[in-house]
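Entry 12.
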Amino acid sequence: MKIFISSDMEGTAGVVDWEQCRPGQQDYELYRRLLQDEVNAAIDGANQAGGPHEFLVNDSHGKMANLHPERLNGEAAYLSGRHKPLYMMQGLDESFDAIFFLSYHGSASAGPATLSHTYNPAAIAEVRLNGTLAGESGINSLVALGHGVPVVLVTGDQTTASELRPFWPEARAAVVKQSVSRFAAESLHPAQATRLIAQRAREAVEALGGATPKPTARIELPATLTIRLRNPDLAEMATWLERVEPDRDEPTVVHLADDDPIRLYRTFVTLVLLTRGIAE
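Predicted 3D structure (tokens):
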């Protein structure tokens, strides 16, 4: 199989503070290593299911250069760098068989969810996909749907797992921590966390190998993203983009609809980048 891995960082066991996942901070190197261990655990688990498989890891956190490429197991290819047209899903195409979302986190309006946000916490308060609350996992699933590749594994806290379920009910989840609040969680010991991730990755690949047809995202097309911004100025700026329409009643809400899920995703990412210009 060919497996695409999108790796964030806030969902890593033990991570509960922004300084733990920002380069230059005292604790960053420790939690960077724990993230790398979780990514490698997913690769090892997948390879236990009829491997060796082919892997592409898209580093999707911050400046998107958090992993040590020479330490990636399975001779995985590594996609890094912060300018990517498809952002957290860059590199995915129809040639892949499965997608892993590793070290993901809950959405801006979910709770409890450690370090919860949706792409840009300074601008975005909530996103709904066809009326269902969507975090980054749900929004990124638009690209998976567009290429016909199933999301089969997500790792992070309990809220992250529950947010993916409406869109991919058959996906496995490795819950490595229980969030208490936005800045507190009870995490598994890193050794237990990596064992759980490896187990769920193996189960996910085994299940996919016997699945006919492959799982499909439960996202009806045309799809609509309903986005609540932090203030009316941000919402007004968002409407500068094609297909983005203001809400009739809510000055902080805009709607974006499209029958092409990848174009919908790209427009959303453009909206995020645009609103960063005036977000506080």
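Annotation: Residues 76 and 254 are 39 Å apart (CA to CA). The mean pLDDT is 96.
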